[in-house]
Amino acid sequence: MVQFATLKYMPVLIFRRAEVKAVDKLYGPQKDLLFPLFRIRPWGRKDLDKTFEKARAIMGHRNFACDFDDYYNPDSSTSNAAAQYKKLTKAKDLNPWYNKLLAYDEIVPCIRLDPDLSQIVASANRPDIVERGFGLVIRLDQSQLILKLLEVLDQIAHNNFFVMIDSGWSRDVLGQASAASALAASIINKKPETTVFLSSTSFPKSFSKVGVNSTVPLPEFNLVDSVNAQLAQTTNLGAVKYSDWATTRPPGGAGGGDWIPRIDVPEIDKVRMYRDRIKATESSAQTCQRLAAFAVSNSNWPSPPPSWGHYSIDLTASGGEHGIYSAQANSATRINIHLHNVLSAGEAGPPATGEEPFEG
User: In 3-state terms, what secondary structure has residue 138?
Assistant: First the structure.
């Protein structure tokens, strides 16, 4: 049984290639402290089970939570896996979906708030789900579902669950503090022993103003601090725990077009970005190498590289074959470094051997 109150970090991660690789490349001791909430979409084309098997593999058979990916349209694919996903997630009766998740010992299911109240309550009190534990995920912009969530809490006769409040995307995440603290207070006052996570993301949708050496702030930590300060003034029953989108954001908005080479280096409260157009005398790979060399020359650059993401940037700076030469590769290394940064306290840090354990 997962002890939700003791979890260190629950990032919200869409089950895409960059996120999957970033998690896969974490150290084992870091994965011990990680409890991701995967927004599931099919991995591969043949069989939806491959998705859950992939999740188990990258987590080393540790626990993780699963929810629908609300941003994925199964009609966008003709694959068998997409058809299976649609049949399970679009059904009025979600028990087959929960049965699919419970077939894997590591998965903690998230109970959907879309069905009618009686079905939600029945699922939340289903003996095998209660034994496993479950999550309830709510976005701040889902006003009708918020009311339903609060009704559901009155009818759950146990505390083996968590609530994830997802504030979504905003460049002004602190502007969400009032609404987030009001919802958190309502949840905690109804069920004082409930573990509540607060997630948000401010990762930019546009990089047109990012240059060769730019800094983008990450105020997500400040949101949790602000909400807990407000909660302390209104209730002494509990506080929210930190979550985020690990330097990703929900799909949509700006994007597309040719990738302008960029190397991202997250720190706890910001991301250093190195972005430049390809010069007439360079190839795309040479531009990436130049930017990576600029990144590792920063006085804050750690040596030896403490994570796979750092190592990949080092490798790119030296012109290595498997460096960061695409948007997906840059995303994977950025997410990996961010996860490493959040998880690196104490025993979660890498062994200080001075060796390079990431190659290959």
Answer: strand
